[in-house]
Amino acid sequence: MTAYFGSCLCGSAKFEVQGEFDSFYLCHCQHCQKDTGSAHAANLFSQSAKVTWLSGSDSVTTFTLPGTRHSKSFCKVCGSALPGTHGEGLLVIPAGCLDTEVSMLPTAHIFTSSKAVWDTGSESLPKFEGLPD
């Protein structure tokens, strides 16, 4: 069984995920845009993997948007997105909170009807390895 490790930005919450991912979606819905402050969320999904909190489970909270199935788990200290369980045991892991490399590439873009109008043509933009001068 594969193990993945992850943490929040401040290091308060640390976790291990045991198991395999079923899919890796880049979600462009308006809720995920608000959650991330970006064009989309990048989340791994698993029906069978299990998360174990190694430290800081008391720093983790979950917000569920009333009237929707949309929820987000995050660190109460630094605000970083963290794994959460949705519905009937679906584990959702924000890809960016993993410290272990994931070889799985995104499966699909979803909710593209809500895609941000400015999220286009980014491959042609200049690229910098750090913050430009």
UniProtKB/TrEMBL annotation:
Protein name listed in UniProt: GFA family protein
Domain CENP-V/GFA: 4-119
Keyword field contains Kinase: no
Family per similarity comment: Belongs to the Gfa family.
Organism: Pseudohalioglobus sediminis
Taxonomic lineage of the native organism: Bacteria, Pseudomonadati, Pseudomonadota, Gammaproteobacteria, Cellvibrionales
Keyword Ribonucleoprotein: no
Gene Ontology molecular function: carbon-sulfur lyase activity; metal ion binding
Domain of life: Bacteria
A Pfam family that the UniProt record links to this protein: GFA
InterPro entries xref list: CENP-V/GFA (IPR006913), Mss4-like_sf (IPR011057)
Keywords: Lyase, Metal-binding, Zinc
